[in-house]
């Protein structure tokens, strides 16, 4: 993961700032596919000093359970380790449901959530769930709307917004995330024209790699 720039309106989160002092190590997968073994595995990972544990979001995958169900369970049985979604697809839940789940995990973990979001990378999974799989630019537009709605729901209430992809009307959230100044936000993908520009404007970090599921980014010019 690489730390992204923040604009003048987005303060640097303390956990993000700490990354400048040296590398940190997190775990993804592990015992993810074995539900009963996941809790003791992550507690061992925490005891060993790892910085974070990340859940994947593929509802039909044989790899394991639901991302947000697992993160909720882990929030209740850990005390220090960061818990992240790597990454939560914006099409699998409405922005309101995503805002609710993220806020709950952050509160129940006493401020340890890292919210990872992505535009989807599994067209077959979309087809199985009969969810349209738009072109990349359209999916990025939907991501931008999701970020706007999340900020609005966690901000001044009541909140109304209508975009081309998502909308909410007169919504008030009574329980918001507890982290200050905001939830650490990760956006997945390594595209220089859209994704990394979005990271620079709106997020704290990004996730990319050379495989198709991690944006197919073999190298990034700096």
Give the topology, please:
Elements: E1 2-3, H1 14-18, E2 26-28, H2 35-47, E3 52-55, H3 67-77, E4 82-85, E5 88-89, H4 95-108, E6 113-118, H5 123-128, H6 136-153, E7 159-162, E8 167-171, E9 185-188, H7 195-202, E10 205-207
Parallel strand pairs: 2-3, 3-4, 4-6, 5-6, 6-9, 9-10
Antiparallel strand pairs: 1-10, 7-8
Short description:
This protein is α/β, with parallel strands linked by helices and 222 residues long. It has seven helices and ten strands.
Describe the structure.
The protein has 222 residues and is α/β, with parallel strands linked by helices. The protein has one domain: TIM Barrel, CATH 3.20.20.30. It is 34% helix and 17% strand. It is built from 7 helices and 10 strands. It has helices spanning 14-18, 35-47, 67-77, 95-108, 123-128, 136-153, 195-202; strands spanning 2-3, 26-28, 52-55, 82-85, 88-89, 113-118, 159-162, 167-171, 185-188, 205-207. The strands form 2 sheets. Strands 1, 2, 3, 4, 5, 6, 9 and 10 form an 8-stranded mixed β-sheet that branches. Helix 2 (35-47) links the parallel strand 2 and strand 3. Helix 2 crosses helix 3 (67-77) and helix 4 (95-108) crosses helix 6. The longest helix is centred in the middle third of the chain and has 18 residues, at 136-153. The two termini are 15 Å apart. 35% of the residues are buried.
